[in-house]
Task: inverse folding
């Protein structure tokens, strides 16, 4: 079994093969840049870049791969973009800090004959040469619907209170898609949205600060929180705990970070999304190598006037964490079941 399977929520997942004949084409050579947006999430260092580098090494052993992380700074990403162009990059895989500001970067690269692959976050105003990501709108809808179903399973009355919505960065187009999906998932739930917040830079401390204010404002009216990723979920949970709220209302997440999986094991977080970044990273590498070989990448759809491929990930709760995460080799029991999480692992049947 593949270590990083293409998990599904229910919709048909698009095939990984992106272009005809890639495997049969002699491996080209050239410089490819992989520019990631921030370090607020550990995924880029732990999963995205290692996955991209591994696939590039397999498909194009003579290629040079440049990696930079902008640490949430738009100006720094612009400098890094200019730097990799100066170093001769022929393909740039870009996960933008600011999706609007990235438009000028795409135009500059294309004017020099350099291909740009928008990664994870789209560039809506200027078509990149390709866009590859998980289905962000689908993710938002899935985590919201999962949390709503949980509230109904617990017989939480719709008239009792409502939910908070902790969105991602206002400068991230992917966060906007997740937000749109969350709205769709909550729309007919019967639970009102008490308040929502766009978290600058996806920063967990900013999410925590905002939720702290809402706990003071709404108190026990808060029956759940739809947080757009695991970092904002962690900040949310920390806010409730600091306020002495016990138990913490159900909180959603996204990314299946180790910290979030452990919070689920401990019963503090309700759900997350398993989306092994290596899947999307490998897809981006395939497209990049194809571009170096002069091939046009095939696409299953067009988004923002850009040839695109989206993958559909899986919702994870305590009920299926073992099956979706541990049994599929995404994160090991040894990594999860440490210290105070050992007992929770035993309850879920997860053993080292």
Result:
């Amino acid at each position: 079994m593949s270590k990083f399977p293409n998990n599904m929520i229910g919709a048909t997942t698009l095939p990984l093969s992106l272009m005809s004949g890639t495997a049969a084409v002699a491996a080209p050579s050239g410089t490819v840049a992989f520019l990631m947006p921030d370090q607020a999430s550990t995924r880029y260092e732990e999963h995205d870049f290692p996955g991209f580098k591994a696939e590039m090494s397999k498909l194009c052993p003579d290629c040079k791969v440049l990696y930079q992380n902008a640490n949430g700074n738009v100006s720094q990403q612009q400098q890094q973009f200019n730097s990799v162009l100066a170093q001769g990059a022929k393909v740039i895989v870009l996960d933008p800090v600011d999706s609007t500001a990235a438009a000028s970067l795409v135009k500059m690269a294309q004017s020099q004959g350099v291909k740009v692959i928008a990664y994870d976050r789209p560039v809506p105003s200027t078509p990149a040469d390709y866009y590859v990501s998980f289905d962000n709108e689908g993710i938002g809808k899935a985590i919201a619907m999962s949390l709503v179903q949980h509230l109904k399973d617990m017989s939480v009355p719709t008239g009792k209170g409502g939910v908070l919505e902790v969105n991602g960065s206002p400068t991230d187009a992917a966060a906007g898609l997740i937000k749109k999906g969350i709205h769709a998932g909550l729309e007919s739930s019967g639970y009102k949205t008490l308040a929502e917040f766009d978290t600058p830079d996806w920063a967990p401390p900013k999410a925590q600060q905002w939720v702290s204010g809402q706990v003071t404002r709404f108190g026990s009216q808060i029956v759940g929180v739809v947080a757009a990723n695991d970092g904002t979920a962690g900040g949310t949970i920390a806010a409730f705990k600091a306020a002495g709220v016990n138990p913490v209302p159900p909180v959603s997440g996204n990314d299946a970070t180790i910290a979030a999986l452990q919070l689920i094991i401990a019963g503090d977080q309700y759900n997350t999304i398993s989306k092994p970044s290596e899947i999307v990273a490998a897809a981006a590498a395939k497209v990049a190598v194809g571009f170096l070989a002069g091939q046009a990448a095939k696409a299953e759809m067009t988004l923002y006037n850009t040839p695109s491929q989206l993958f559909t990930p899986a919702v994870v709760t305590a009920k299926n964490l073992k099956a979706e995460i541990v049994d599929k080799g995404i994160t090991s029991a040894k990594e999860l079941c440490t210290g105070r999480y050992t007992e929770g692992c035993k309850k879920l049947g997860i053993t080292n």
